[in-house]
From TrEMBL:
Organism annotation: Agromyces mariniharenae
MF terms (GO), sorted A to Z: phosphorelay response regulator activity; transcription cis-regulatory region binding
Transmembrane as UniProt keyword: no
Pfam hit, one: Trans_reg_C
GO cellular component, as recorded: cytosol; protein-DNA complex
Descriptive protein name: Response regulator transcription factor
Key words of the record: DNA-binding, Phosphoprotein, Transcription, Transcription regulation, Two-component regulatory system
A Gene Ontology BP annotation from the UniProt entry: regulation of DNA-templated transcription
Domain Response regulatory: 3-117
Residue positions where 4-aspartylphosphate is found in the record: D52
Residues annotated to bind DNA: 125-223
Domain OmpR/PhoB-type: 125-223
Length: 225
């Protein structure tokens, strides 16, 4: 799975970017200033960076210069409120691979990130495996202990979400937003699909050990561990 560093001191913008990237199956890290961004780039295996131009402390251009020295092959997409041609040119001349001006379409940003990942060969879908489950995002097939599962599209996406986030607890609101793409909706939709998915993947759906309920909070993928 590709990993993208999102660098923005605006928590609202960063939350939106991260939500859309993760919904597209891209793992993310977050940094809120230039120093943290450079530290994350040094410590992590990153496939791309979404970098805001206006940052506290080190600005985006200086961060970009240093990234190009330390990680010259990692693609960088500049994300900024500055729309003037000179600012765009400065970012591109400093080594940015692409440039998006706020306000932006989150879906367009995801497409641009996916485009730079394809160019570098990063982020190609890989087989997800956990707790006897295997899922192939390319062929859209899944197996339990070698036996192919007959999943609906939504069950497949729900299983992919949990396999991509093992050990983390997610409430139904988060699952509805990330898997269905709905900001508002009937939370029982999640409950019903979790029950149906359990019927297909659990050794004993009445006593789930893979996709477990955390009472009062939500659901967690334990993978039988």
């Amino acid at each position: 799975m590709a990993r993208v560093l999102v660098v923005d001191d605006d928590a609202t913008v960063a939350d939106v970017v991260i939500a859309y990237l993760e919904r597209a199956g891209i793992a993310t890290e977050r940094a809120t200033d230039g120093v943290a961004a450079l530290a994350a780039a040094e410590a992590s295996a990153l496939d791309a960076v979404v970098l805001d131009l206006m940052l506290p402390g080190l600005d985006g251009i200086e961060v970009l210069h240093r990234l190009r020295t330390a990680r010259p092959t990692v693609p960088v997409i500049m994300l900024t409120a500055r729309g003037e041609e000179d600012d765009r040119l400065v970012g591109l001349e400093a080594g940015a691979d692409d440039y998006i001006v706020k306000p932006f379409s989150p879906r367009e940003l995801v497409l641009r990130v996916q485009a730079v990942l394809r160019r570098t060969g990063a982020g190609q879908p890989v087989m997800l495996q956990h707790g006897g489950l295997s899922l192939d995002p390319v062929s859209h097939r899944a197996w339990r202990d070698g036996r192919e599962l007959q999943l609906t599209m939504r069950e497949f996406e729900l299983l992919r979400w949990f396999l991509s986030h093992p050990g983390a607890v997610h409430d139904r609101e988060t699952i509805l937003r990330e898997v269905w793409g709905w900001e508002v909706g009937d939370l029982s939709t999640v409950t019903v699909h979790v029950r149906r998915l359990r019927e297909k993947i659990e050794p004993d759906p009445a006593r789930p050990c893979l996709l477990v309920t955390v009472f009062g909070v939500g659901y967690r993928w334990d993978g039988g561990g």
